[in-house]
Design a protein that fits this description.
17 strands, Rossmann fold, globular, single chain, seven-stranded antiparallel β-sheet, 3 domains, 270 residues, Dihydroorotate dehydrogenase B (pyrk subunit), domain 3, disordered N terminus, mainly beta, Elongation Factor Tu (Ef-tu), domain 3, seven-stranded mixed β-sheet
Length: 270
């Protein structure tokens, strides 16, 4: 327990597989606990080194997928710093400690009849679990996924398992169509039966700004934000972002507590 009523659950799993996926890695972890039940869009604070205090801070990683029947948690990690580089070198049989699940996930009740997923780069990681959750409700989602190049694409095959279809965009045309992923929304105003009921998004700020400028007036958008986090539980305030209150006055929210998923119209994108 942390200050006051703040609580979190700690778990430890066994790494089953560590598989390269483009320039990222897929870690499948067996978690033997009936209490561990994440929601799509939530994240974990993962301990880097179980045998040392260096690196000291846990790393926030989205739940990329969770097979509840098998008890297998999937993380997808792009090694960008010392902590994530250490995690992707772990061998099968290693024990992975973490606490969570944390944060607010995607509102599945807002999906409607024809939700779309739009993901850029490593932002595709948490969308696998979202696509699974929607499929388990009998809702087949259309998925648009993009990256700068083919090697930067994440979780495409996993997304295909749970999506009605997956459309790929790369800026250098090394996979799918050439262009940024938001190019897939160009004809949206002409659609009738296939028009999305809602967009679920995760990706870089530039992608979210394009969504804000092009579709936000006509389609609800729920976005999972990427932010640097230290504590992951709302105590340090290091992940605060600007938000709009119902009255229009500016305010702040913590990505780790009030997010990471927000209605995009409430977020002030920097």
């Amino acid at each position: 327990m942390l200050a006051g009523s703040l609580q979190f659950d700690q778990y430890e799993g066994v790494l089953l597989r560590n598989t390269p996926d483009g320039d990222s890695f897929r870690l499948d972890i067996e978690v033997k606990s009936d209490a561990f039940w994440p929601k799509a869009g939530q994240f974990l604070q993962v301990k880097i080194n179980p045998n040392a205090l260096d690196p000291l801070l846990h790393r926030p990683l989205s739940v990329s997928d969770f097979d509840a029947k098998a008890g297998i948690l999937t993380l997808r990690i792009r090694p960008v710093g010392r902590g994530t580089r250490h995690l992707v070198t772990r061998n099968p049989g290693s024990r992975i400690g973490f606490f969570g699940p944390l944060g607010e996930g995607f509102p599945l009740e807002q999906a409607g009849s024809s939700p779309w997923i739009i993901a850029g780069g490593i932002g595709a990681a948490p969308m696998v679990f979202l696509a699974r959750a929607l499929a388990e409700r009998g809702i087949r989602v259309r998925t648009l996924v993009g990256a700068a190049r083919a090697a930067d694409l994440v979780a495409v095959e996993a997304l295909k398992r749970f999506s009605q279809d997956v459309v790929i965009w790369t800026e250098d045309a090394s996979a799918g169509s050439q262009g940024v992923v938001t190019a897939g929304l160009a004809q949206i105003d002409e659609m009738q039966d296939e028009r999305p009921s809602v967009l679920y998004a995760c990706g870089p700020v530039g992608m979210l700004k394009t969504l804000e400028a092009t579709v936000l007036d006509t389609i609800p958008v729920f976005a999972s934000l990427e932010a640097h986090m230290a504590c992951g539980v709302g105590a340090c305030l290091g992940c605060a972002v600007g938000v709009r209150t119902p009255g229009g006055a500016p305010n702040y929210a913590r990505v780790c507590r009030e997010g990471p998923v927000f209605p995009l119209r409430e977020v002030v994108l920097s």
